[in-house]
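Renewal narrative, Specific Aim 1. Our central claim is that a sequence can be written position by position from structural information alone. The example that follows is taken directly from our test logs and has not been curated for this report. It begins with the structure tokens describing the chain, in the order in which they were read.
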């Protein structure tokens, strides 16, 4: 029958709870005198004249700090009772009282770890002094044990911090707990619950865990407490059967994430300090193993994302290359036939031409992204008249805007000196931002494009909203800011960062009313980043959006 292991904190001289003493003497008046004397000294005392009652208290009740027993009792020797108490708690302090002092009794008392030997009759002050000294000695031993535990924890912590590899961490943790416990064999099992436990590592490597071992580990996991059992067959090591096992759960942030099962051929009694040290090690190991598991999951997710990005890049490269040539033929022949016919046929061909042109724009975006990924799209800096470029883009969109009753309002400075940047990249950015504004603004809505020159501090104030942040090396320069605002449908707050990801669009891509491949804003982000600029968006659902980008104002 497996039993729970007490993992209470170590008693120390500064512990506010008084030490618990057990007094056993077949003479009731001696029990009463000793009990009253020690209670007045501030101790919590239980006294009995029946050794069987004392044994029951040792086995079932709270832990005692000291046993004070007579050596000669009718039903049991005090030395035998001391041995039972020592087996239950190897750290308990023991004082023997006797009216039959002899070298033989003294020798046997020392062999059983007796702290002191009181010859009857004795003075009450002598009793108080012996109890005080025995408890002080016990506290010093516990402090030394705690210090050794902390030293081992420090060494294990250094070993844990040296690696994030799960198998190596599991082996370090298991070896430390085997060394601490004195057991000869160990198994470390991991899992999210008791039914998914699997063996992560064993020591020695050829040790085998039996079904009974798994059952004990699962029970410890489910109960969230250490369990000890020596009534079954828990494992095999070098052809030796392991009949004693201690299961200690591993914890991380209050949750059990594994179990260490320590096994041996013979039954063993662990000192409470060792038990508590094992629990501390288990908790420390649980946290380290959880971190390693999270790191592995994160690394696996990163690798999967890298692979998806690679596949997307390959798809872009293949699709753009394979589509461009046939698309050019479609556009060329369609334009040629359209110019040679009239009436409804011309209208039909115009629709074909417009659809093919939309495909060409998507292919062009894919090619541009591919060039950025491969480093082929290096900025070509030259003086740029930004006002003139914006007016050119607006003029190209006027016919499209007029059909839907939309209006474009420009707020441009009368004079803006040319500055160094890449004209083609800025033109692409403006085309995408204005095309999106037209696409997502309802009929009779308004699109506004404005230019301003701002200091670097204004961009720093937008830190949380920035999708691409400006380099701090350019903080001394003024910045040209372009705002493209619309009165469209707006963007939910939780989508405002993701819309700049490749192939991402708000809403189901199969059912959305508006077209596009989700590449435009990704291209805007990459182009502005290549120019050393900044990008951000401010939007509210149902009220519209303002997309902005900033470029360093490097004058010629």
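The sequence written for that structure reads:
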């Amino acid at each position: 029958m497996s039993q729970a292991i007490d993992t209470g904190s170590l008693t120390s001289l500064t512990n506010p709870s008084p030490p618990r003493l057990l007094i056993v003497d077949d003479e009731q008046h001696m029990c009463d005198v000793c009990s009253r004397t020690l209670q007045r000294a501030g101790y919590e005392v239980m006294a009995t004249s029946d050794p069987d009652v004392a044994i029951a208290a040792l086995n079932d009740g709270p832990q005692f700090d000291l046993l004070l027993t007579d050596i000669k009792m009718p039903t049991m020797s005090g030395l035998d009772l001391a041995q039972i108490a020592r087996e239950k708690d190897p750290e308990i302090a023991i004082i023997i009282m006797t009216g039959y002092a002899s070298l033989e009794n003294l020798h046997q008392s020392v062999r059983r770890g007796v702290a002191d030997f009181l010859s009857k009759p004795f003075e009450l002050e002598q009793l108080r002094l012996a109890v005080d000294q025995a408890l002080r000695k016990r506290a010093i031993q516990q402090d030394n044990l705690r210090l050794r535990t902390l030293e081992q924890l420090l060494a294990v912590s250094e070993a844990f911090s040296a690696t994030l590899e799960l198998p190596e961490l599991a082996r370090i943790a298991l070896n430390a707990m085997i060394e601490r416990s004195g057991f000869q064999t160990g198994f470390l099992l991991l899992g999210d619950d008791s039914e998914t436990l699997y063996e992560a590592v064993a020591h020695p490597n050829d040790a085998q865990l039996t079904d009974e071992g798994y059952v004990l580990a699962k029970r410890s996991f489910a109960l969230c407490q250490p369990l000890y059992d020596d009534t079954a067959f828990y494992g095999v090591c070098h052809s030796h059967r392991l009949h004693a096992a201690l299961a200690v759960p591993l914890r991380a942030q209050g949750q059990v994430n594994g179990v260490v099962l320590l096994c041996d051929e013979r039954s063993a009694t662990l000192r409470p300090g060792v038990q508590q040290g094992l629990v501390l090690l288990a908790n420390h190991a649980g946290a380290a193993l959880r971190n390693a598991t999270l790191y592995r999951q994160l690394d696996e997710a990163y690798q999967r994302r890298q692979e998806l990005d690679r596949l997307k890049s390959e798809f872009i490269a293949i699709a753009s290359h394979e589509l461009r040539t046939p698309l050019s033929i479609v556009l060329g022949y369609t334009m040629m036939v359209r110019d040679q016919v009239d009436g409804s046929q011309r209208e039909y061909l115009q629709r074909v031409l417009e659809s093919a042109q939309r495909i060409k724009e998507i292919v062009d975006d894919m090619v541009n992204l591919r060039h950025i990924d491969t480093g082929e799209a290096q900025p070509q800096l030259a003086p740029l008249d930004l006002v003139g470029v914006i007016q050119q883009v607006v003029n190209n969109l006027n016919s499209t805007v007029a059909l839907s009753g939309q209006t474009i309002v420009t707020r441009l400075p009368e004079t803006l000196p040319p500055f160094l940047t890449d004209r083609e990249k800025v033109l692409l950015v403006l085309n995408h931002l204005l095309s999106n504004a037209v696409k997502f603004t309802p009929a009779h809505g308004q699109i506004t494009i404005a230019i301003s020159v701002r200091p670097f501090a204004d961009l720093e104030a937008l830190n949380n909203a920035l999708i691409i942040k400006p380099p701090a090396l350019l903080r001394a320069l003024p910045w040209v800011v372009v705002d493209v605002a619309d009165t469209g449908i707006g963007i939910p707050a939780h989508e405002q960062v993701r819309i700049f990801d490749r192939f991402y669009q708000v809403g189901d891509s199969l059912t959305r009313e508006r077209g596009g491949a989700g590449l435009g804003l990704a291209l805007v982000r990459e182009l502005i980043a290549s120019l050393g600029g900044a990008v951000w968006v401010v939007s509210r659902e149902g009220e519209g959006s303002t997309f902005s980008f900033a470029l360093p104002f490097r004058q010629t």
